[in-house]
Amino acid sequence: xxxxxxxxxxxxxxxxxxxxxxxxxxxxxxxxxxxxxxxxxxxxxxxxxxxxxxxxxxxxxxxxxxxxxxxxxxxxxxxxxx
Length: 82
What we know:
By secondary structure, the chain is α+β, with helices and mostly antiparallel strands. It is 22% helix and 10% strand. It has one helix at 2-19; strands at residues 33-35, 43-44, 70-72.
């Protein structure tokens, strides 16, 4: 039983070490997906500047102004203001 407990303890310690969040390098080529259709159709993927607020009019959204119904941030944390 002691041997089994040692293996379980080692497995738990390994999972804790691998579960620790890693620092993510800041990428300058961030993109977001903005779509006219709720099923991610008719989309554009403009570059998303980091650490700044922008108006969608300043992004290269084509003719989607006032028509965006869905978006994908590809894992980025974004605050959307309407």
